[in-house]
User: Fold this.
Amino acid sequence: MTGTIEFGLNTFGDATNDLEGHPRSHAQVIRDVIEEGVLAEEVGIDAFAVGEHHRDDFAISTPETVLAAIAARTERIRLGSAVTVLSSDDPVRVFQRFSTVDAISNGRAEVMLGRGSFTESFPLFGFNLQDYEVLFEEKLDLFMKIAAGGPVSWSGTVRGALNDVTVHPQLEEGRLRTWAAVGGTPQSVVRAAQYSMPLMLAIIGGESARFAPFANLYRKANEQFGQPNGPIGAHSPGHIAETDEQAREEHWLNYRTMMMRIGKERGWSPMQYEQYVQETGERGALYVGSPETVARKIAATVQVLGLQRFDLKYSAGTLPHEHSMKAIELYGTKVIPMVRDLLA
Assistant:
């Protein structure tokens, strides 16, 4: 079992502060993320993914560009998105950009497709939110046809038809690994199985065990479609330091600032420290603490969901780059070996 589990890192390119509390420019944040991706390979992490956002609290709007820079400085680590907002993009261009990253990285690219948790990209690129469902469904269908390789014929309502078109550049070998990012709807889980996509569960609140029905549904759907199960992964936020107290001290206020900003837009109550402590506990979705604490929590999640991949979203709002670099080092050198030992 341990040999099949991959461990990854995610970042949204959160707009960070320096150690004195001063905001860093988006340009510097992007350069920092590249260094974080390079370090991830150096400490033995399997995968590194960056998100797509179009707002001032996140610096990365084109993940593929950042991944290409990391690809040129690494040799082994998988490089992907977390997520690519397919609804407001063009499936042809998404494939072209990732097949280019795949070429630069010698076959290490992967893409994670989802709807995203923000909607700024819809008006920015001229799409109507009323078309939310049909945009994703049709574009996913087209993307998966392109990803299968060879000439594509397709027609729908959200873009022009393709008739026996081959999209270039083609992958040098194999198929582009394409994950389905799911926030917790049964329809999305079944759709992932329908397209034979690996499933990535976004667990950002509450106990991971409550996602077990979705993992089971995915397995049952694959069985009904008469196909083998793809990998199941989980993505959750967290932070690692030498001790539990240090990890919480570094993470809490930066995480709270991020959650308060998003919560103000969405009508959430401000997060209280008691809630934060609960989420960092054994049954919460925040993997914050010492290497031992985080390793035990990851191992429990892997077991209860039957995972083949666990991704830690290590960036947290204004959390300084230096703290993230230390967390990456600890994740690769201490947490992952501990998890593998616990699962052995």
Q: What stands out?
A: The chain is about 45% helix and 15% strand. The first helix runs from residue 26 to 42. The two ends are 8 Å apart (CA to CA).
